[in-house]
TrEMBL record, chains A, B:
Cofactor(s), by name: Zn(2+)
Cofactor binding description: Binds 1 zinc ion per subunit.
Organism field: Salipaludibacillus agaradhaerens (Bacillus agaradhaerens)
PANTHER family: HISTIDINE BIOSYNTHESIS TRIFUNCTIONAL PROTEIN, HISTIDINOL DEHYDROGENASE HDH
Signal sequence, renumbered to the chain: none
Protein family membership: Belongs to the histidinol dehydrogenase family.
Residues noted as binding NAD(+) in the record, renumbered to the chain: Y121, Q183, N206
Pathway, per record: Amino-acid biosynthesis; L-histidine biosynthesis; L-histidine from 5-phospho-alpha-D-ribose 1-diphosphate: step 9/9
Binding residues for substrate: S229, Q251, H254, H320, D353, E407, H412
Protein name according to UniProt: Histidinol dehydrogenase
Amino acid sequence: MKIIPLKETVSLKRAINQGTDKQRQTVAAILEDVKKKGDEALQKYTFMFDKVEITDTLVSPEEISEAYDAVSQDTLNIIREAINNIRDFHARQVQQSWMTTKEDGTILGQKVTSLDAVGVYVPGGRAAYPSSIIMNVVPAQVAGVKRIVMTSPPQKNNTLDNIVLVTAHELGVKEIHKVGGAQAIGALAYGTDSIQPVDKIVGPGNIYVALAKQLVFGVVAIDMIAGPSEIAVLADRTANSAYIAADLLSQAEHDPMATAILVTTDHSLAEKVAQEVSEQLATLPKKAIAEEAIQHYGAIYLAETMEQAVEAVNELAAEHLEIQTEDPWAILPSIRHAGAIFLGEHSSEPVGDYFAGPNHVLPTNGTARFSSPLTVEDFTKKSSIISYSKQAIQSQASKIATFARLEHLEAHARAVEKRLED
Amino acid sequence: MKIIPLKETVSLKRAINQGTDKQRQTVAAILEDVKKKGDEALQKYTFMFDKVEITDTLVSPEEISEAYDAVSQDTLNIIREAINNIRDFHARQVQQSWMTTKEDGTILGQKVTSLDAVGVYVPGGRAAYPSSIIMNVVPAQVAGVKRIVMTSPPQKNNTLDNIVLVTAHELGVKEIHKVGGAQAIGALAYGTDSIQPVDKIVGPGNIYVALAKQLVFGVVAIDMIAGPSEIAVLADRTANSAYIAADLLSQAEHDPMATAILVTTDHSLAEKVAQEVSEQLATLPKKAIAEEAIQHYGAIYLAETMEQAVEAVNELAAEHLEIQTEDPWAILPSIRHAGAIFLGEHSSEPVGDYFAGPNHVLPTNGTARFSSPLTVEDFTKKSSIISYSKQAIQSQASKIATFARLEHLEAHARAVEKRLED
């Protein structure tokens, strides 16, 4: 890894795949087709892209039970423990409806209501990501969403990955459809005979899925479009170079465009981490990916002071930030922008990917400046509550009418003044 | 107004102005120009669109003090009382950072941080909307946003409307720039020599402003794009037809595409409201606008049962919902989708536009199914907090590593296992 003296500002190269015009047109055409032809279009595109003929997209109880046969008890126990931890954390995010009352009879408040129906997209491909299912389903369930629909492209054997099915069943997801790509997003947004529409679509996917989500946004809500993974480590001379290198590589293995950055005040640590990264990299199964990420999007910044280092990690606004310093809690209040903050040398980033409890769906691409991890709140919405008594409206009507007339809205003024007439 | 028997589903025509391709290209070109040429581009477009030559966009203390001279003490008092009410309500929305600890030394939590900088767009045009300034600035201030920048197109006399300036000053907004349109959005997103960039842009605007906000989304956060105003009233035979008519018209006067709908179980009320709407309409200054809205987007639905009526208003998912029934609080729990809910005959909708306290920036176009009023939370973001002790990582590392390997992420597994080495 390159060691670079930290200048006033850190400039971070970030890559976002926004898709080509051609991809956008393809996706728009698929969505239009699903909107018009429903299930027929789903069958057509599933045959075209997944090379599978489906007549019924719904996963059957037999498929679930066969999946269980293929998963070991050990694996099942770990998945269950992860679900418990993640459910426990998210349960603490639940917001209550609230109100405030005034002596003149006014009641004001905020009613929290869960969304009616949510679609969770689960990508296909060679590896299954049970953690992604857990992280998207749990907050929706904790929020109280009544209908959760999962969709995922069928494998060649006309079913889904065993771990995917088992994880969904463990979570209690009842409606699982074997359909993927832009066509799945179209079905979730517009509905077909076999898939009722939802109010929000979450979950990662390839560029076609991402573009489809952007295009149906407004008809339904969507989660953020995730960019490549990012890790920033803030460290001083007390940090363990082998730990830091391992954590940097854990994100680098995700994507050749993943970002892995160390900001440190200690030159000797910088050199040791660079050395450790080379050594640990050599034996990784995903060496090629991680190496490319480290080469293009990896860097070690050497800061003169801890203040300067902290300002740099704030500018990075990374998805994951590790603070590996003598007293990480003393630094926490100065951190303004990061998706998830890991404190101390034992808090290795992958702890947050699967097991600790907080969500692993985090803002990327510097959007931690204004975005948050996926939370229970993302599956609820609020309504304001306004209840005026006769006394309240009578004492305020003339003031409200004056305000309305300032804005040239006479009908507004008259509506409140109407209440003064008797 | 037409009286229509309520069928199983309510179909609501809704109009959204998504702009033309030509408008989109114009806006994209302006944004690009502002990004490249900064203040020079701002001057150019201000001269082109607002017919005003500006060299310094910043509003001066003299302009503020002249604006105060033109505003009456009465008006000032009403604005101050509105600000107080709205600040009091929003102060109750403040969320705290929180944490949970486990006996093995684990600390998990969520850190709430305010955004660094927010831009509030204030439209120009014939009428000034001080309420809009208050509703966008107050939640940002309550959230703790340090820098709030207001931008608004200059009038012919090279300054802003008096009420706009006074309201901004009363709120404590220090940085007010005389620049509007897409060029203002470009300046807020990319920054110029005289306007530093922000993290989020809020506030209403014309189609050019709305398109510009969509195009800079991702570089900065934006609020939702508001559609035409909507009101739905749910009423039984106990309701006051004159009140209902006045409230329907208060929204109809906003826009020829505004929606005004009554859903009632009482035929006689339906007829009386239709009659009252005609009568009250006749003398409104904005008669032409309100009449067009009522004609095209207004309707009275006659339901057979209150359950059916409630389901209909849930399907409408209106921006504003009034419940004018014998016992509105008994109905509240059944309301799943509405931006703001007004309970009882004294709770006239305009009460919520200026004065009561809750925000008047509300989801339109059926997005109340998944969106919320503007809140303090919209000006904060969260970071997950994860702190593992040595004991915690050592007892969980092998489980986390197993999970990582399920997902074929070997570097993740090794990062946690590294912590077992000593």
